[in-house]
Write a structure and sequence with these properties.
Layout (H helix, E strand, L loop, with lengths): L3 E8 L10 H16 L6 E5 L3 H5 L4 H9 L6 E4 L5 H15 L5 E8 L5 H9 L14 H16 L3 H15 L13 H6 L2 E3 L2 E2 L8 E10 H7 L5 E10 L14 H14 L8 E3 L5 H10 L8 H7 L15 H5 L6 H13 L13 E8 L4 E9 L1
Parallel strand pairs: 2-3, 2-4, 9-10
Antiparallel strand pairs: 1-7, 1-8, 4-7, 5-6, 8-11, 10-11
Length: about 375
């Protein structure tokens, strides 16, 4: 396998982009990444998108987006793994370059979610859960994660305040991210007393509905030094795993086994341990998710995620800063784009361009992206070269 580097990144400010179409926001991010890389050609393209058909009435994205980016007839394909679609696109692009099939690959993610009603968005997102045994009986994703939260609180005595502190931290980080959807500071009382969605989760425990795209450019490391004006960032580890799609079928509601397995694969490939990671972007679709994920990644012991958050261990300046971008909570969650945007935040940090949210001496970062209630998960480890 060849060593693979990220040589260009691009995204726009995420939010409710009503005046732009799906194709427009993708091309905008792709051109920004191409410009950042300083390249004039692409050999192949992978696009993560969960449900262009249900959100925007548009499928066949490989053809559409290659056409509107002006790079046809290169091979281009849309890949899907629910909210992990961006992460799986990154892995497919990584494999393409590492194998020697392609030299310069554009990996993108895109989702246009606000062109449908709230009910329409809920229906589209629910297709990532078990339709027959969960959705048909009225369970939504907030309901599923509320069950995870209740079990974590019962078993490990995680408190309501600790859940809220995840949102407080990530909104604090998002204040310093110009691309974040919600640059809005919140406190514990505001989180706990905001509109109830599924007990104990309120609206400020939940990630928002978002329009947005994100793109990166990959190349072999030896070409990166010749082509790019930027310090190359190497993908040193990649892991992908699955678990039962239904929460009801798991022995432990609080264990994210697909994330644990994907992390084992990525750590082994990179030859590192959790305590050698300087920062991480993780899939905080709900506050309880971040607490469970930092346990699954081995950053803290099982059941200690809430305490770690309260102690400041996951804050910028702490032992392992989590979601310096603001995470899904503040930056936003256009589901197909999230996994790619996580990689962009790590690249910016490793380049030393994190601005007010920069992690001091960051050399190695991790991304964790997952679909549904953890039925699929991707973990990537990135290192400055």
């Amino acid at each position: 396998m060849r060593e693979v580097a990220i040589i260009g990144v691009g995204m726009q400010k995420w939010g409710e982009l009503w005046e732009k179409s799906l194709r427009n926001i993708f091309v905008e991010a792709a051109l920004a990444a191409i410009d950042d890389a300083g390249i004039d050609r692409i050999d192949a393209m992978y696009v993560g998108c969960m449900s262009g058909g249900l959100f925007a009435g548009q499928e066949h994205l490989g053809s559409l987006l290659a056409d509107y980016l002006g790079v046809a007839p290169i091979p281009a394909v849309r890949v899907e793994s629910a909210c992990a679609s961006g992460g799986i696109a990154l892995r497919q692009g990584f494999i393409d370059v590492a194998s020697g099939m392609s030299d310069i690959v554009l990996v993108g993610g895109v989702e246009k979610m606000t062109d449908v009603s709230g009910d329409g968005a809920t229906y589209a997102l629910a297709t990532a859960a078990d339709q027959e045994y969960e959705v048909f009986h009225g369970v939504t994703f907030p309901g599923l994660y509320a069950m995870i939260a209740r079990e974590h609180m019962r078993r490990y005595r995680t408190t309501r305040e600790q859940l809220a502190l995840v949102a407080v931290k990530n909104h604090e980080n998002g204040l310093n991210n110009p691309n974040a959807q919600y640059q809005q500071k919140v406190n514990v009382d505001e989180v706990i007393n905001s509109t109830m969605i599924a007990d104990p989760l309120t609206v400020l425990d939940c990630s928002p509905i978002t329009d947005g795209a994100a793109c990166v450019i990959l190349s072999p490391i030896e070409m990166a030094f010749k082509l790019s004006k930027n310090l190359p960032v190497v993908i040193s580890g990649s892991g992908h795993a699955t678990d039962t799609i239904g929460l009801y079928d798991r022995q432990d509601l609080t264990a994210f086994n697909a994330t644990s397995r994907a992390a084992e694969m990525a750590y082994k490939m990179a030859g590192v341990k959790p305590d050698e990671i300087d920062l991480a972007e993780v899939h905080d679709c709900f506050t309880i998710a971040e607490i469970c994920i930092i346990e699954a990644l081995g950053f803290v012991d099982r059941g200690k995620g809430g305490e770690a958050t309260k102690s400041g261990l996951t804050a910028i300046g702490g032992k392992i800063p989590i979601n310096t971008s603001g995470g899904l909570k503040s930056k936003g969650h256009p589901v197909g784009a999230t996994g790619v945007a996580q990689a962009i935040e790590i690249v910016e940090q490793l380049r030393g361009k994190g601005g007010a949210r920069q992690v001091k001496n960051a050399r190695r970062g991790l991304t964790q992206n997952m679909g549904g209630s953890g039925g699929s998960a991707l973990v990537h480890i990135l290192e400055s070269k």
